[in-house]
Amino acid sequence: MKKIAVFTSGGDAPGMNACVRAVVRTAIHHGIEAFGIRRGYEGMIEGDIIPMDKSSVSNIIQLGGTILQSARSKEFRTKAGRQKAYDNLKAAGIEGVVAIGGDGTFTGARVFLQEHPDIPFVGIPGTIDNDLYGTDYTIGYDTAINTAMTAIDSIKDTANAHNRLFFVEVMGRDAGFIALRSGIATGAEAVLIPESKNDTDHLFSILENNLGINKMANIVVVAEGDEAGGAFSVAKAVEEKFKGQFDIRVTILGHVQRGGRPTCMERVLASRLGMESVKALMEGKKAVMLGQIDKNIVFTPFEKAIKHHQELNPLLINMVEILN
Length: 324
Ligand code: F6P
Known about the structure:
Blueprint: E1 3-8, H1 16-29, E2 33-37, H2 40-46, E3 49-52, H3 79-91, E4 96-101, H4 103-115, E5 121-125, H5 141-162, E6 165-170, H6 177-185, E7 190-192, H7 199-212, E8 218-223, H8 231-242, E9 248-252, H9 264-282, E10 288-293, E11 296-301, H10 302-307, H11 314-323
Parallel strand pairs: 1-2, 1-4, 4-5, 5-10, 6-8, 6-9, 7-8
Antiparallel strand pairs: 2-3, 10-11
Helix pairs in contact: 1-9, 2-3, 5-6, 6-11
The protein binds 6-O-phosphono-beta-D-fructofuranose.
């Protein structure tokens, strides 16, 4: 293998830069030429493929975002788009590709490989949502939960100062990982996640109880994908039920959770997966996502990583219950 390329795709995640750096430097270490594809599949379709050397990834390990930039490409969903991408990779002499991203990225890679099996792709899980099967943690998740935790700590200060009930909405798409962890870490009174149903009724009973003991400062963390709707919908339902008894405020944390300096855990995980991905290509692996489970590197076929979602640990859900 003489030339490989790396790209980042879908929602950016802190740690992606550390991963790109590891791919480039590991490739160079093994005498392989490294290339970066800018803006994910969009750049692949446009032929935006740039040579990368050791210094092109200097001083990026600590940066959030992605120096290669990212995109969610509509054109790659078409056969014609994928053909253009293939032609560009071929023209650049690329013999292997490392795709850093989430569900959508691996879905695209899987279809691409069915049509063009001669360019192997391996994947690295990069998303703040932590919703991918085949790894304990995705790149970006640890930083995102720490960012959410710090923000909720701040909200807690003001909630206590004014005896207010806050609904804090966190990201995670259809998954409740960010909500659950940040809720436990901040001692939230309740956490609403898509994985557990009918939690609004349960929330009412927690608030009823707190009202009874005059506990007016409460934090409720709401996952954006919760079936009750976002934090505004839940706040509305609570206001209708308790009619002015709580002083309610809503905060949407939003994209602040996607940026920022990656944590130490993140940088190490991203560096390890990046390094192992090059080895995987050299060993002839393809159409697999690399993950780390119990400290071991694990390979999961794209098909499986896409179809299954990582399960939330029910013990953690129980913890909120007992400790609130
Ligand atoms: O998948 C990462 C994520 O940040 C989700 O948590 C969120 O639902 C989505 O991306 C937001 O996407 P966009 O940045 O395209 O609005």
